[in-house]
Amino acid sequence: MVPCKVCKKEVAKSAITCPHCGAKLKMHPAGKFFIGCLGIIGITICALLFYLYVSYDVK
Ligand SMILES: [Zn+2]
């Protein structure tokens, strides 16, 4: 059991929303996956930009 961030009542660890106040406790799994993908894409773009920057700088 974990305390709800909003109403401070005990809520099951696996609960996505609080049964007492209805507050969202966890991010939707699809949302987590989306953010993970976004992070990987962001890192790839950063690596690509860094590679381009380095290769242009060497001239
Ligand atoms: Zn609550």
Protein traits:
single chain; rod-shaped; Znf_ribbon; Putative zinc-ribbon domain-containing protein; 59 residues; mainly alpha; binds zinc ion; 2 strands; two-stranded antiparallel ribbon; 1 helix
Question: How would you portray this structure in words?
Answer:
The protein is mostly helical and 59 residues long. It has one domain (2-57). The protein is rod-shaped. Strands 1-2 form a two-stranded antiparallel sheet. The longest helix has 29 residues, at 29-57. It has one helix at residues 29-57; strands at 2-3, 10-11. The N and C termini lie far apart (60 Å). A hairpin with a 6-residue loop joins strand 1 (2-3) and strand 2. The structure holds zinc ion. Zinc ion binds next to loops.
Ligand kinds: zinc ion
Helix-strand makeup class: mainly alpha
The ordered string of helix (H) and strand (E) elements is: EEH
Number of domains: 1
Low-pLDDT sequence parts: none
Shape: rod-shaped
Largest sheet, in brief, is: 2 strands, antiparallel
- Radius of gyration, in Å, reads 20 Å
Report helical residue fraction: 40-55%
Strand order of the largest sheet: 1-2
Q: Roughly what is the average pLDDT, rounded to an integer?
A: 90
Number of strands: 2
Helix count equals: 1
